[in-house]
Amino acid sequence: MTTLNVLNRPRLVDDVVRVLREKIVRGELPAGTQLLQIDLANQLGVSRTPLREAFRILENDGFLKTSNNNRTVEVVTFTAAEMRDMYELREVVDGLGARLAAVRGLSPEAEAGARRLLAEMASTSKPHDPLRRMEAHAAFHSLFLEHSGNARLTGLIPLIRVSSAALFLPFIDNPEGVQLTAAGKATSYKELLDESQDSHRAIFDAVLEGRASKAETAARKHIARTYSMVDAFDEWRKVIAEAATHEHSSVSPGPPSASSPASPGPPSAPHAGPATTPPKRKPRKAPA
User: Fold this and answer.
1) Could you give the CA distance from residue 158 to residue 156 in angstroms, rounded to a whole number?
2) Which CATH architecture has domain 80-234?
3) Top-level class of domain 12-75
4) pLDDT per residue over 49-62, tens digit each?
5) Directed axis angle between helix 189-208 and helix 212-229, to 10°?
6) For the chain, which end, N or C, has fewer CB atoms within 10 Å of the first or last residue's CB respectively?
7) Domain boundaries in the chain?
8) Is 126 exposed, middle or buried (0-12, 13-18, 19+ CB in 10 A)?
9) Is-contact 159 145, C-beta < 8 A?
């Protein structure tokens, strides 16, 4: 049980947010789990006041949703339709953010921050670290909106945080070595992340060069690629979860006790085959 030391903690809410976020991303609080304030407050050793504030922050970041006049709080579950809605909007938002950031230019501090976030994302594909990846990913895309000079656009940063959470939360199990299917060919989750990283660098390079049209096209293309894979996510989750289950069940048990006969171990796990190719998406017009 995780208990927080409330002494000398001027920002206790931040600690509660951090602990709950990690529990969600690590799968300790799975999607659809209802969070009971009294139970959680006792587990964490805090009052309900910082817990309610943490709920508000995590709802804004896309991890939780409330209903029943804020009396019911649960970990979010995103459907493919909700993912499509978010990423259709993000194709426009990210494209405009990259264009405006390229026109305005990045400050030395912003450029250094973007480079740091690129390096952080690169270090999370192997070994797989969904929490660090998600945080760095959301911060990288938000950076261009923050430096767009458009206050209305900056106000859409929560959309980026929510959609990033939706993108990475399903893959809490270690997906390394599991074969997936994307664009009609077998691939791995790491290869998908590496391809995404190439797109991130293309956006950053175009913004840094001040090439507004190129930056917008790179950003829209990157988001459109994610959109095209949304229908495959549910199947990928199943494949990765099954592989993780087989991996756990194939671990050899310890030696039997002297008073009991040895029992055979569980059968070896079958190899997780490729996921079913997702249904083809209707052709969309190329970004302007």
Assistant:
1) 5
2) Up-down Bundle (1.20)
3) mainly alpha
4) 999 999 999 988 77
5) 160
6) N
7) 12-75, 80-234
8) middle
9) no
